[in-house]
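Consortium newsletter contribution from the modelling node. Members have asked for a concrete example of what our holo predictions look like. Here is one, prepared for the fe (ii) ion complex that several groups have been discussing at recent meetings.
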Amino acid sequence: MLSKKNIEKFFLKNGYYDFGNILEKSKCTKLKNIIDENRPCNKSIFFKTKKDFKKSGRLKNYSPGEKEFNAIFNLNLNLKFIENSKNFQKAVESIVGQNYTIKKKSIIRSVPKKLHPQWVLDVTENVGRPNVNPYIKKEYQDVQYFQNIDFHQDMTRGKKFVTFYIYLDEVKKKDSPLNILQGSYKFGATHYPHYLRPSSESDYWYYSDLKKNHMKTKEVSIFGNIGKVFCFHGLILHGTKLNLSVKPRISLRYLISPDEKKIKSPFMKSFKFINGKIVENKKLKNGIYFQRLDRSADGNFLKTGSSIL
Ligand SMILES: [Fe+2]
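And here is the predicted structure:
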């Protein structure tokens, strides 16, 4: 049984919550198999060479949209066993309150390093947040592919939401689990690359908002089994290491917005604990947005290095 009080206390302190395996495993496996069959993940889904990418690829609109160009809708996937299940609804309501809105849902593929063509590894080396989608052929781009992802925030435009994640695979250390920096949402929106320095104590970081505030935060990995649901605050720092297994992990990601009138939900209450802005929308003179210092004005990813690999 979920204890609302405990969930609220934990979420406000740490900015995430792990609900455990609350979905039907057999239905999750069935869904995963359908995705695997229709959207295989192997070297042949990539452009063969950098030259092919330059000729036919693009650096804009390469990720699944809310409804358009999204494999969940293109494959007509039935997700009622998730969205209409009492367990899922109660989990979501325990964080964002009732009358929530599913703003976006997408299929996430963590692509093992081994499955990337060498030319893609060369392009993405030392890029902090290498989105792999640009290098994938258009017919497969309705799934979101990732390599490693440096610590970042999901909520970058000021619109409030919580990210809910569902594992459709068993996720162990080598499978690139999500890593979360506990409590980091409390500094609000800060620019990427975020100002993080490793502590001498393993799994701890110091995080600065560059306004004199520093926090010591613990890095927590979310391991789990098929059917696990967990969520994190849109402003929490999170990321994944390189996928060193042979298995391209499949997860579902839901971005869920609250009914902002439900001010007593843990998520709405969390904004009282934030001591910065909830959006950083300054644009620099060179055309780069302050929030994404790793993107040039033409959409190219800049090499910044990464805090996690
Ligand atoms: Fe993210």
